C-alpha cells in the first residue's frame, strides 16, 4: 500500500480551450495540513472536484490509500474515506444540525440501507452529538438550520464531513463569507475538532494569514498548474507566487 493517503497522478482537465488542470501531480501524507492557494480560476476547485468525484478528469489517476478511485461517484468516494465541505454549506435547512450530521453519517456507511435495520443507530446519534460538542455547537443541536447564523452553518457543514471519520478531509474555502473577526476563531474550532482524528486535511483558502497559521504545506495554483509546493513561508516568498497569486511582487 502507498505511504500517501491521497495521490493525484497526471490529472488533466479542459473546458473547451480552457485548461483547468494541466498534469497535476500531488502526494498527500496521512497527517498533512495542506492549503491550496491561487486566484479565482487558477484550478484549485477543479482539483478538489476531480479528487472527490464531482468532476471526471480527462486523463490521469486519483488514488486513495493506494486504490484507484478515478471517476467514481462522489458517494462511493465518500464511502472509501474522502469527505468534503463546501464553500456554500450544503445543508437541509428545515432539519436540525443533528439530523444533517446523521444523514452525512448514513451516506458514508459502507453497507447499503436496509428495511430491516434502523436508519439511525445509537452509535451514529452519539457521534452526531459528539461532533456538535467538538465544534462548540451543542446549544444549536435541535434548532432548524435556517434559523442559524452563517458561521454556525459553516461549522455544521465541516462537522458533517468529519463525522464519518474520513481518511482525507477537504475544506473548500472554510472562512469565506465569515467576518474577519470570526475567521481565526472558526479555524481554531476546526483544528481543535480535528485533534485525535486520523485525517489528512486539505483546505482551499484566500486569506494568507489563515494559510500561514494553519497549514504545514502549501500548493500554489496558477493557470491550471502548480507553480509552488513547499512550507508556507517558502511558497509565499516565491516570486511567481507573489506575482500571480498574492499580488505582492515589487
What does it look like?
The protein is α/β, with parallel strands linked by helices and about 250 residues long. It has one domain (about 5-245): 3-Layer(aba) Sandwich (Rossmann fold). Helix content is about 35%, strand content about 25%. It contains 9 helices and 10 strands. The strands form 2 sheets. A 6-stranded mixed β-sheet has the order 6-7-8-3-9-10, with helices on both faces. The chain has a 4-stranded antiparallel β-sheet with strand order 2-1-4-5, covered by helices on one side. Helix 3 (about 95-110) crosses helix 4 (about 120-135).
Task: Kindly list the characteristics that best describe this protein.
250 residues; alpha/beta; Rossmann fold; 6-stranded mixed sheet; 4-stranded antiparallel sheet; 10 strands; 24% strand
Short summary:
The chain is built from nine helices and ten strands.
Percent helix: 25-40%
Cross-sheet strand order for the largest sheet: 6-7-8-3-9-10
CATH architecture: 3-Layer(aba) Sandwich
Mean model confidence by pLDDT: 90
Strand percentage lies at 15-25%
What are the secondary-structure elements, in order, as H or E? EEEHEEHEHHHEHEHEEHH
Question: How many distinct folded domains?
Answer: 1
Radius of gyration: 18 Å
Highest CATH level, the class: Alpha Beta
Under CATH, the topology can be stated as Rossmann fold
Task: Estimate the global geometry from the Cα principal axes.
Answer: globular
Number of helices: 9
User: Can you tell me the residue ranges where pLDDT is under 50 for at least 5 consecutive residues?
Assistant: none
User: Could you give the count of β-strands?
Assistant: 10
The largest β sheet comes out as: 6 strands, mixed
**Going by CATH, what is the homologous superfamily?**
P-loop containing nucleotide triphosphate hydrolases
Distance between the termini: 46 Å
